[in-house]
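Fold Annotation — chain and its backbone
Next Lines — sequence and tokenised fold

***
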Amino acid sequence: MSNDRRNAPSIGSELVKGPLVESRFVPQRYEPNYAYPLLVLLHARGGDDQQMVRSMPAMSWRNYVGLSLRGPEVVTRQGRPVGHGWGPDFARPDRERSASALALPDAEVFRRRLLDSEPDPVDVLEDGIFGAVRETRRTLHVHSERIFLVGVGEGAAVAYRVAMAHPERFAGVVAINGWLPGGFRPLGRLKDCRSLRVLVVHGEWNGRVPVEHARKTVSILRAGGLNVAFQSYPCAHRLTSHMLSDVDTWLINQCTREM
């Protein structure tokens, strides 16, 4: 066993080095001379980083390095903490803040940021994600052009926003049972976003986010010229082994095509 392998964090190891709690998945028989694709894993509301790490073997034991991040917000039900979330900017479509609160002119958004003593939570979240990616790349051998955001539910909303605000940093997005978040222009960087590959997978019986919402998102992104694959499944809002197997196949296809 190589020294790199002995010192690398093992499956499910939890690290607190920045504003977000991290857990990492190291591939079986990790080869330090091979540049692995990196999957940045973003959990659903009420979940945590460990749940996403545990889902990695259903995709592959060997193909990817996984970086799973925990949302900064504590989710409570009946006054008791039940998991974590990503904040009101990524709320489910039926729980979004009012349109009047979201649809501020750009000049007003800029003015508020200048006067606001508190940093913007989305900026802080993005910085946390980028910092975690940098730290993972220092520890493990990651292919710089094969970094994918993989989000479930609310985590998919985070993946959409971060990738489409910074398309040059990522190879693609996998959105599982998720939605486009409100309050930003997803195709504001249209030309650059066309380099992103997107996979949308959704449960046909999802009562939280109906599959029609996912189909509308796919239509919007395709109308903008993005390469979007879509697949629905006979299930509700839970992850299934069939979903994850198809995600693995799609990721491998992206990694083996001409970059």
The longest strand covers residues 142-152. The radius of gyration is 18 Å.
